[in-house]
Amino acid sequence: MSNRSLSSVLKLSILSVVLAFTSNVYAEPVKAAFVYIGPTGDHGWTFAHDQGAKYVKEMMGDDVIITTVESVEENSDSERVITSLARKNDIIFTTSFGYMNPTVKVAARYPDVKFEHATGYMRPTDNISTYSARFYEGRHVIGKIAGRMTETNVIGYIASFPIPEVIRGINSAYLAAKSVNPDVEIKIVWVYSWYDPGKEADAANALIAQGADILMQHTDSTAPMTVAEEKGVYAFGQASDMREWGKNAQLTGIIDDWGPYYLERVQAVKDGTWTSTDVFHGVDSGMVKFAKLNNSMPFEVRNEASSAIIDLSMGKIHPFTGPINKQDGSPWLAEGETPPNYPDLLTMDFYVEGIDAKYPN
Amino acid sequence: MLRLIPRVENSTAMVLLSPVLALTLTALSAYLIFIFVLVDIPVSSVFFTLFVEPLIDSYYLSELLVKAAPLMIIGLGLSIGFRAGIWNIGAEGQYVIGGIAGSAVGLYFYDVEAVWLLPLMTIAGILGGMFYAGIAAFLRVKYQVNEILVTLMLTYVAVLFLSAMLQGPLRNPSGFNFPESRIFHDSAMLPIIWEGTRLHIGLIVAIILSLVAWFGIKKHMFGMQIKISGSAPRAAKFAGFDDNKTVWYSLLISGGLAGLAGLFEAAGPAGQLTPGLPAFYGFTAIIVAFLARLHPVGVLFSALLIALSYVGGENVQIEYNLPSSITQIFQGMLLFYFLACDILIKYKVVFFKTKN
User: Containing domain of residue B149, as a range?
Assistant: First the structure.
């Protein structure tokens, strides 16, 4: 080896050491934290958010350090968890509605930390963003499938809390089902919990006993899917693919894909370009996706579902397109009219006409 | 076979030592579990985060006291009732009703800024809890209905009632129809006793109440009455104690204190009424009362211990990504060892040979 090449090797290695050193000093990894309402093993809502967090780690590698806290109750405990995280992180995702006021309070005390609150609406300081997805678009697709596939004409709906997001889902699913099957009716059981496998299974059994042969859920566990598989009825995965629990039962599932959004936001913190925003994305941006359509469905049903998904992704259809009346018969949307996000969709507190259940009040 | 035989005399030294022994055994078991579970994290640093950091970091210390205050207040009430053999298992329900009643007053006078508001809310909270426990007392006295069942079942009713209230009359009118109340004004909020933290006056109230209860049980006739009613019901009857009165007082006291704790939680750290109000305090306080051997001052310490397990468990989760069930495992072991040690103080284990 000549002297010359030896020196160039030396130079190169010195350079790489210096580079490694500087990149450590000047580009510290972003610290991102996630607060979860349920256990990451719920295979529903929290699982989907955790998949998003894992996606960020996968894409950013050593540029990000991720901390997750699961099963954080929506009470005064959550403020402590969020504060503890704010002391050590750059950006914090609080992934349930009930964390809204704690998030707002902590954000006011930690102006240098960025906060992202899922499904809320309060952004009083400019270090808070809110984000949510148009899950009702997913409900539209499963509503169509349910309307076609039910033989008893009864859809069972396991609902969590009567908040606008859940009401939107019920209305959207019902309208879609009714559009393909005028005789369809929907039975709703409120379990007043986001994650309670026991109660969810009880609700599923009760609905099946009342004649439902197809189940929808707006709760986070796989219990309803398991019950559906046992009892030989149909169901839809919620927030993530639940096929493992219902090989025959799951017709498709609404999948929440938070990964790309989380990556974008964490990257923005790293780049110093993060600003407060309000995001409400749907099928078009890929935030709402679908599990594989079950091959046991007739070709026409699968075809109809696929074209609904395509239409939604191209923005050609809106699940709430008039004429639609409210449950009491008063008009809501005129022929061809679609509702604005605010106030109609974001504060929805009524059933649409045709739903034969009492609004929980 | 094994049999437990009552000891003739309980060792005083062991009575004092058993809590220490139980704690040591819990720590030892936790240590063993961690050794098996943790792969590349040193066990000692997990222990530090779990048991020491919450006590030396001022923020975590304040949060530990915030968490302990409602446990102290509810646990105190339960320990009085349990002494008398009145099993109020539904403090959670009374806590919720107290929270609703007190918050309803606060929300009714939403626009009012006045010094009388908080005291009025407090009274409403106590009365709410008393009323709710009073239902169980009435049914027990009048129809001999078991108070364990009534109080427990009424807890579910209370939680649903909270949902109904937050869907209806107490809902924030400008809150996008989400089931939450408005955020209280300052004069409806508990005074903060440690600047910059959430630590509120509830802690001081808890300490005062526990001292009052201690003297009350020692000096007052009622203390004697509940003690004898609990340990020797027949003797209590011969002594002319009114059994019904014991039932009423026990339930009203424990219910009232649970209601007070509920209001303190809503008007303290929460600052509003939300569906998350029932944070299992009512059930956890049962552990607190038993860990304190139903002693009104001991309740203060056992509440701190349980609060430590919550705050420390949370930190371990944040710091080392360990599952949240660590807190429950720890609490379960703690109660198990406490009860086991106490049993072995009162009884000795004897091996019998069975004759066939």
Answer: 70-303
